[in-house]
Amino acid sequence: MxxxxxxxxxxxxxxxLILVLALCLLxxxxxxxxxxxxxxxxCYGGGSNENRANILKTDFGYYLLSNTNSTNGQITxxxxxxxxxxxxxxxxxxxxWGRCYGGTNIDYAANIIGDGKGNYYxxxxxxxxxxxxxxxxxxxxxxxxxxxxxxxxILWERCYGGSGREYAAQLSCxxxxxxxVISATTSxxxxxxxxxxSLDAWxxxxxxxxxxxxxxxxxxxxEHNNIFDIVETRDGGFFFTSKAINATGMVQGTPHGGEDVWxxxxxxxxxxxxxxxxxxxxxDYQGWGLLELEDGYIFLANTGSDDGDVSGFHGVLGxxxxxDIWVVRINSIGDIIWQKCLGGSELDFGWEIIQSDDxxxxxxxETNSDDGDVLGLHANYNFQNDDIWMVKITANGDIEWxxxxxxxxxxxxxxxxxxxxxxxxxxxxxxxxxxxSGYTEGDVNCSxxxxxxxWLFEIKDCSNYMPSIPIKPTGPDTLCTITDSTSIYxxxxxQGAWYYEWQIVPTEAGTFLYDSxxxxxxxxxxxxxxxxxxxxxxxxxxxxxxxxSEIKNTWAYSCLGIxxxxxxxxxxxxxxFPNPTKEDITIRYRIPGPGYRVLIYDLFGxxxxxxxxxxxxxxxxxxxxxYPAGVYVAVMKSGDGVVGRGKFVKxxxx
Length: 654
Description:
Strand content: 35-45%
Largest sheet: 5 strands, mixed
Oligomer: single chain
Helix content: under 10%
């Protein structure tokens, strides 16, 4: 019996230990995710619908490329039926200008790239043959590529395709300056050299100067093949993923059942070097997001399988509405190093993967799940709920933390929608309808123009980005408000500061006027105010405000009764000039008789100096350069009697 009791106690303790460890892991995830907070956000659009934004960093801020059905708000020169909308914003999200591209039929955006020379290239698809489309549509939907300058003016535009349907042209710049174009096609004529049946992956390389096709190849088999992403490899070739059901046509390998991810490595001329099929017995298909690594590649896909190459699936097997994101890392010849399913019991879809400084990865996705790997979905089951989901994984695929961003409605993401500014700082371009009427929960905190707006927001770990406290301001130590009604105070630039706020205590001493982005401020003193003023400044940015700086003290005096030499007649009273002074003063008087002396006191009655007045001399000079800054009184005496007095200000360096 004692052994059984000890065993029971041991089992009980182990269960409690496991529970504590699980809670610690959960708390750790929650703490980790809480650091990546939204620092600023903005919404852009018109009275209808804007969605699926791409973002590109520019010299002036950012370009956003999206689709629009609006005719008002921030939308201008709308052609009709659905246009491509290019938006220019500054670094803090302020709207600069916007422009629509298209014709009177449907036009749809893919992405925008820049060549580093001030030129930009917009990729999309068009069903139009008028408006901005002047190069001639081949029939149905064509690829459409537009070259613009930095202000969005068209330099050239061109349609590519055949008599079938071409999907939106996704663009990337190659190392030699040419432009890679990928999309799917159903054509077998026009610009398309061949069709293997149904939908094929079509890859072209074009000349950026005029859009001429330099290389042109179709990949596929009699089934449905598509292409969403491609990367130029270090050896000058290319790596991309598609999907396939059977090993027919160009597809080689062992199918797993359902649909497989079809991965292809080519040389620089688009000749296949190797190919592999990845998946399980249900359906698995390629997604957006892939990278070349030092030892191979990593790519995002979606899966409904939990066998074959796939393990760890969270949803319902074979149910398209409960897909997981499937992250697959392979070596340089396509062998799987590790794979990971990310998600929960509902639909999860990956859009982008970025390698982090520690060798791990950050995945940006959409999620409808509120379980499994997903924490913090903004869920209200009276509404459609999709959040933007950010997941940090290690180099081995283990989840470190995740974070959901959204409202009680459905937020969407797209490819090329992320700008990585630092390891702990990203700009995310999504779209949102905002929270439903009457609800305020969630992260979307900007005014929605219509049914859905572009939602741009910056996230960062603000503990690393708070502005530093400014140094002590420099400015006058003392002054006379009669002659110095304004004063200039300045500081050095504070690290991380966007703007500055100045204050004076007491407030009745004066008023600051300043440009908050500058490091100087002008103080307008209140007339006749006297006393010690405390000047301080603090900095702020999108993460918050610093503490106030060390105080700069300034003594201000009205100096009433102090006469300038130009205004004072020759009287038996003292005339002191220059006033205020930094170094020397002259004391002028008209006093008959010998035995006079001048005594100088500070405002606390402490004697600073005593000068014997020479007989027959009507003025004396006094060196006050060693005096502390402040107000002083000069008294002329004969014996113990006061026969004249005056006041002067000794100022400090300004």
